[in-house]
Amino acid sequence: MIYIHRIGGYNAVLGEVRSDIKAALKAATGKVFRRTDRYIQLSMLGAHEVAENIDADTALFMFSGEGNLSVFNRLRDQQYIDHQPPRPVDFINSLSNTAGFYVAQYLNLKGKNLFLSHHGFPAQMALILAENDLKLKKQKQILLGGVDELLEPVAYTKKFLGVCDDTVLGEGSNWLILRAEERGALASIETLPEELTREAVLDFMATLDPEIQVAFGMRTDPKDITAFTQQSRCMRFDYESSCGYYETVPFYVLSRFVEREKGQLVFIDCFEERYRVMTLYILTPGAI
User: In terms of domains, do 68 and 196 share one?
Assistant: First the structure.
């Protein structure tokens, strides 16, 4: 278990239209950031919302479902369509950790900086990694953010994400400041390190107190959600009506619950019939 001390970020329900992130970043910071692409700007926009007066020694961990895919699309077009060498800026930005560099530079962070990409459970893997570093006292504080950008055309994006044609897509940049210490925290977060089977989730749901709220990842089969909820009297936490699907959306769910609710949330995510569980407990209701 580790503790959330600050939350913030940017989330959009987009459907077929992408927001002007460059303009939003300029409005938020009053600055124009050269040599950055939209993914980097999205990363900086979310981190800006959480990192005011942050300690310079804070570690920066970023994660994503797919990383900065838009820059690879541009590199492909430059080489195979335009028959030109890669643009130097795009070549540099093809390293996904470049986004972490720009975020750290903007926030004047001098600590550890890493980027994790995971197609199945990016949020859960990043939280486990952060918890290990905090518990081993390798880091005192971690700024942990999940960033996914919506690619166009949207139909193509839905295909490689493996979601249904009627799924509403979104994008987001959601960030948490994490510490091992409870004092002054907004909430605690615990990520079960093991993957669960469907049968194990059914058994787990039967043990939950009715006061606990539950939420499910957007890739979870509706039939499974029905079966799970029939095992308990827990109330569903609705986040789906306020965001579209993207792979790091669990961090939006955590932030929204901390911001609006009290008590405890169990979030159950699914990928290829495998399940992972995160448990969030509010410590300071109404502190935001």
Answer: no
Q: What pTM value is reported for the model? A: 0.90
Q: Which of 165, 185, 205 is the last residue of a domain?
A: 185
Q: Which long-range contacts (CB under 8 A, 24 or more apart) does 196-204 make?
A: 196/274, 196/275, 196/276, 196/277, 197/273, 197/274, 197/275, 198/224, 198/273, 198/275, 200/275, 201/228, 201/268, 201/275, 201/277, 202/227, 202/228, 202/231, 204/277
Number of structural domains the chain divides into: 2
Q: Which of 52-56, 87-91, 101-105, 182-186 has the lowest average pLDDT?
A: 87-91
Indicate the residue among 120, 153, 185 that finishes a domain: 185
Q: How far is CA 54 from CA 127, 131, 182, in A?
A: 20, 19, 18
Using a CB cutoff of 8 Å and minimum separation of 24, what contacts does 279-284 make?
A: 279/189, 279/190, 279/192, 280/187, 280/188, 280/189, 280/254, 281/187, 281/188, 281/189, 282/186, 282/187, 282/257, 282/258, 283/3, 283/182, 283/185, 283/186, 283/187, 283/188, 284/185, 284/186, 284/187
Q: What is the pLDDT of residues 53-98, one digit of tens each?
A: 899 999 999 999 876 666 666 666 666 676 777 666 666 666 657 8
DSSP helix/strand/coil, 167: coil
Give the domain extent around 38: 2-185
What pLDDT digit, counting tens, does each position of 20-35 carry?
899 999 999 999 888 8
